[in-house]
Amino acid sequence: MSEPLITIGSDSRAVAAARLMVAKRVDALPVVREESVVGVIAKTDIVQRMVK
Fold first, then answer.
1. Distance between CA atoms of 26 and 23, rounded to whole angstroms?
2. N or C: which end of the chain has fewer CB within 10 A?
3. pLDDT digits (tens, 9 = 90+) for 37-46
4. Burial (Cβ within 10 Å: 0-12, 13-18, ≥19) of residue 42
């Protein structure tokens, strides 16, 4: 895991998550809302969304 933790807000778009993953060279990001983790988005989630 990276330090400091790289997260994305729950209101962010998938493309923003993808760009952040590429920029930071990570495969997944915790999704946060009001300082609480509400989920995780991974590269595979983004790829699956693209092919639908």
1. 8
2. C
3. 999 999 999 9
4. middle
